[in-house]
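can u do me a favor
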């Protein structure tokens, strides 16, 4: 079975006057997930928030995020699958 990179995404979100919560979903096809790499960077004037993968079952991957006002978040998600 061959391993391949199925998801490779970098996302940046920034808030102004109000905070925000959201879920990002990424389609991911394959037989099974072999590894997940997730890195995040939090910044901005306040710099309060968090994000983490919540749904790591195929056919898609979800990342849950939240930010307070005047914050900035960048995350990178890489998912390898076996076909």
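np, heres the sequence
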């Amino acid at each position: 079975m061959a391993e391949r990179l199925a998801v490779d995404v970098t996302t940046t979100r920034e808030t102004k006057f109000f905070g925000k919560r959201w879920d990002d979903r990424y389609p991911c096809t394959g037989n099974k997930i072999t590894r997940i790499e997730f890195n995040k960077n939090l910044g901005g004037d306040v710099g309060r928030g968090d994000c983490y993968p919540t749904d790591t079952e195929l056919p898609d991957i979800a990342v849950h995020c939240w930010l307070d006002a005047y914050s900035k978040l960048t995350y990178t998600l890489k998912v390898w699958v076996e076909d």
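Residues 3-82 form a domain with the Immunoglobulin-like fold (CATH 2.60.40). hope that helps!!
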